[in-house]
Structures are given as C-alpha cells and as structure tokens.
Amino acid sequence: xxxxxxxxxxxxxxxxxxxxxxxxTNDALTWEHDLDKLRAAGFTQLYREGVQYSSPSGxxxxxxxxxxxxxxxxxxxxxxxxxxxxGLPLRFYLRxxxxxxxxxxxxxxxxxxxxxxxxxxxxxxxxxxxxxLVSGFHANTDPIMIFFVxxxxxxxxxxxxxxxxxxxxxxxxxxxxPMIFVPAILMYLPSLRERVxxxxxxxGTWIVLSMPYLALxxxxxxxxxxxxxxxxxxxxxxLFVSLLKDTPLDFLNRFYAPLAKWIAFGAxxxxxxxMKLVRVTPPLFVQCGMIVFAFLFLSPGxxxxxxxxxxxxxxxxxxxxxxxxxxxSGVCLLAAYTAxxxxxxxNAYADTFNVTIGMRLFTRFVLWxxxxxxxxxxxxxxxxxxxxxxxxxxxxxx
Length: 398
Known about the structure:
The chain is mostly helical. About 70% of the residues lie in helices and about 0% in strands. It contains 19 helices and 2 strands. Strands 1-2 form a two-stranded parallel ribbon. Helix 1 (about 1-20) packs parallel to helix 6 and helix 2 (about 25-40) packs across helix 4. The model is unreliable at about 390-398 (pLDDT under 50).
C-alpha cells in the first residue's frame, strides 16, 4: 500500500505539472471560449450557436457546438469561479479535477477487486499513459465521467441500488456515453423493483443536476446533446466502407454509413442479452469492459480522449495485457500530440487540426486494431471463466 500510494502521488504530480505548464489540445481552448460565450450571451446562445475562434497562430477553426448535458453549465460556471479567484486558467482546473477523478477510479477499482495481491495491476492502472496524457494534457471531462461509471458499477455489485443510480445519473450528466451500459445494468439487477428504483433515481439525478436550464430550454438542449456525433471518416469499419464509395461495391457504403451508429449501440444492447441467454453471467465490471471496447471498435467516430473510457476495465485481463495495451495506446497518443504541438513541451498546445492525414490514419488504425484485439481477449476471458465455473460445479457433490 505504501508503494502504491507513492506511485499514485507521483502520477498526480506529473498530471498537475502538465496542467500547469501546458495549454493542452483544442478542447482546452474550446472550454474557455464556452465560458466566455456563457457569460456574454447566456446558456441559450451557447447551445444554439456554439463557439468559433482562431488558433494562437491565427487559423480560423470550424464552429464548436456545446454538446454537453445541461448539468455541465453549472460545471462551467464553477470552473469560471475558480479561474476568477485564483488567476489560473480554466483548463488547469479542468485537468486537475480529471487527475483527482483518476485517483477516485483507482480507489474504486481497488475496492471492486478486493484482493491483496493486485498491487501490480493497480500500479499499472495508476501509471497508465492514457490517463497521464488525457487527464494531464488533453483537457476534457471523459476521466471524470468514467470515474462515476466505475463507482456506479461498484454500488450495483454491492447491492446498493440507490447510490448506483445517483452515480450513474451523475456520469450521464457529464456525458451521455454511459447510456451504452444501461442494458447491461438492467439485466444484471436481480429484480424488477431494483431496476425501476435504479432507473428512477438515475433519471431523477440527471434531471435535478440539469435544472434550471433543462426546464427553460428542454427542446433545444435535448436536440443538441442527442444530435451530436463524433467526427467520422477516419475510424474503423466506417473508414473502410467509405473507401468503397463510387466503386462497384458502393452499395455497401450506402447501406452501412447511415446505420453505423445504431449498429454500435445495438451491439452494446445485444451483448448482455446474449450472455444472459447462454447463461454466462460475468461480473458487471467485466461486462462493462466488454461493452466499452465493443462500442469503440464498431463506432463510426472517434476522438483521442475516448481512450480514457477504456483505462480501468482491463485490470481483469492481467498485467501483461494491461501493459501491452497501455504501451501501444500511449505511444499512439504521444505521437499524435507531439505531431500536433510541433515537439514543444513547456506551454505546449496541440492543434489537432494540424495533424497530417497520414499520421491521423496510422495512429487511429493501430488504436482500432488494439481495441479489436481487446474485444477478442475479453471474449476468451469470459469463455474461459464460464468453462472453469462449469467444471467446478460438476465436481461438487450432489
């Protein structure tokens, strides 16, 4: 425990250093312009118009929509207050909160594992280059969101359904991504009463945290946040199918492109149902890991900060798999950020719009392949665990 504490403290200091002495990515500037727009024009105009600004070098960026749930308007105002009081920029506090959220994730995973010999796994989780680069440098809310998802899974597995609903509602108030876990959680809960309780508390938490903005502009907010789609074209099957455009196989592109998002969501919903039908019931923590990797593998869009979604779940696959996945993903992230910053370190600003298409395609192809391998490894892990469980039951006397 002492060595784990030292490793966690070192990771926190490194993330704090990056937060203090770098600018981050375009997302960092977007959040700061969001605050300016919120203060100048109000939340309605922020949702309706988004923000548009130029890079430090003067390059005009396309419009950036504010696609976050209404609760994040409160978060944006809170970050602005910290900025005003301290003089440190909003992007520093956003990344600092992400760094502490990573510690919360570490503690929650430790409680879920509940075994004294997992020190190596926890140290690898703490030193994940994905967490260091996304939480310490990138500047977005994904690490905070995933902490509340993991916390909600912990409460579900401990039978504390009410607190699980609060944690899930809070996670969904940061981003809507946790919706991919809803089918798995509902099927994991043992009774209809607990499912209704979890759903009502989760929805209630989301609504309460969204007030008063949701009540004032419900249609605008819901249309904006549910209409958002990640940037398409350079990720996964969508990329390969798009290459068939204007070829004899163009019908595959025309068929797949409009359905790609729904195929990814459908797979997340079908996965826990299939496991239930074949009577395979791994822990919810394992199911959520499978869902995250399957969703990203099938998703038509991708952004580098999405890798933060994958960090905690793979502790179940062992230290060798963790180390390999973290290393490959970390190298890809570092290569992309280095290309975007031009190699600078202090006061680094990663202008992701300047990353060449070759670098973008290469890093994303490697990341997509590694995520696909993780989906396969999860399948093997669940199958092996099921086989071992059946053998154990057969050996027990009747």
